[in-house]
């Protein structure tokens, strides 16, 4: 019994660290303000879309960008049709994009496709001032390019990350709960990180760079979480990622259990892989330089996903009520108060629709659905291969 109590107390102490960080980030996010300037130079922007077998949606993605609230003559759309076996390239050209076809069965993946384009097609994008990366199934807000241009027009800003949201939160409980999670992870945590450390993280889509930066780096990270890897590489080189919550892109989330499982396993499996790879280097950099940006980057990386954190809080709380008393019980209860403040604040700050608030009641079902996913990730090796998730629109047609 004594050993069990000691283990449980140790678990509570360890869990107090992410809980404290979430509380600190939540409070800091309320004080965040995006960098703003009166000047918008209306930069020449290249919109880079990596696409793998996206014939059903690529034309709409190109059309949406060209219809945005931004001077058309300052927009060039580049589509990298990567290892496509369908009519992605043809449909992208017909919609008005410059298309670059890549066939490489050995070096497969989104990061590899971006790197190939940036290193081998420099003449095609040399005229641009900035390049933004979106996916073929992403819908960009009409003011997205305007916001990107305004941010990158400011001296000293080389990299900007917009808000990555959910395009179909009303489609069911899974998209609604992902919407709630994105409001927290893709906004509150971003805003809090910028306020606390001066830099945020790349999110894979809705990110934009000064062209000279990408011409110099290419896309050097090729794992399934290449965006997070690139964030840390830029951080090591002293380059901050700025956050603009008004540069909005939205992605369609799947509702079918099988497709959702594939999508979530890929994302979170890659994240766990990066935790193993980058935790020690980030700690060493902080210990050597005393630069708080490395400490906050380490915290952002190692704080468990929300679902896993809820599972851990539940286990610790149940154990505390069975074996402990006094201040230990108060500590366990404080985790839930912090979590409630954290999740609710994300919805408040992003003005979540009522449907998202309503579906939060289904969170326990979502948590139970995630348990076997985490178990499966522990038992199998991850992959960096570009695995395309079926779109929700395709499910409706089938």
TrEMBL record:
It holds the Pfam family Glyco_tranf_2_3. One of its GO terms (molecular function) is glycosyltransferase activity. The chain crosses the membrane at residues 6-32, 294-322, 328-345, 357-379. Gene3D superfamilies: Spore Coat Polysaccharide Biosynthesis Protein SpsA, Chain A (3.90.550.10). Keywords: Glycosyltransferase, Membrane, Transferase, Transmembrane, Transmembrane helix. InterPro entries: Nucleotide-diphossugar_trans. Belongs to the glycosyltransferase 2 family. This is Glycosyl transferase family 2.
